[in-house]
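Morning!

This is the sequence you dropped in the shared folder:
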Amino acid sequence: MTRTILFSTVFAGALVGLVVCQSESRGSPPLADEQPKSGTPYVEDGVIVVPEQFAEVVGLEFSEVNTASLEPTIEVVGTIGFDEKKVAAVGSRIDGRVYEVSVSEGDLVKAGDVLGHLESAELGTAQADVLGAQAKFDAAAAQEKRRKNLEAEGVSSRRMVEEAIAEATISKAELMAARQRVEALGDSRSGKLGVAAIRTPIDGQVITVDVYRGQAVAMSDDMFTIADLSSVWVNLAVFEDDLAGLSEGDPVKLRTTTGEIEMTGQIARVGSIVDPES
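The structure's back. Tokens below.
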């Protein structure tokens, strides 16, 4: 409402100035009974009259004054980013060398799918320890069973049976510890000794593949980046002067720089930190 009145006032002032200038150029103010020049604004009974021809030329439009709430619109630039809750940086739990890369950038994957395989001497040693612990446990379990049978026949003493049971229990504990160590080092379900399968923990799309076959990697290296793009964040750069007019839930219309893609959304969060450089 205020903007409309100001605009009308400025426009009227401009027109009045135009009439005065024209009058001064003629040497005397126009008389009420003089005929105005065709197609130009003129004053009649203290009212500025704008002919339709003039309005069409300058693109002037008229409308009735009404009351409405102002909804300011600002235009800003932004970047599309991942939803932090739906992105995974996938790496290895051990140092090793890339044995195989099974995916490419852009591939769609499901949770548990194999992204690649890693060859590790440490994992191979741990898997060999599992095999040795399994053999030892099998022998101890067989000895326990045999001692119990001999005791039932009156050939073996109870002490020998108890010793066999203790040996089997120790062997079982050693086997469990060896298996847990292998699980801690990586996924060993590849079927090959010393080769670990690297799997994605989430559904999504392969964003980056940062390794190649034969490359040496460490535990701190990220091998793959997987992201669920069903929902993304749009980070908008808003000047500090415009922050007061923004709040969570405000509608947002998004379009790409080429204008080919348009989307709509809502403000989910207004940051509380201002970049001092911008």
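Headline: The chain has a mean pLDDT of 83.

More detail when I'm at my desk.
O.
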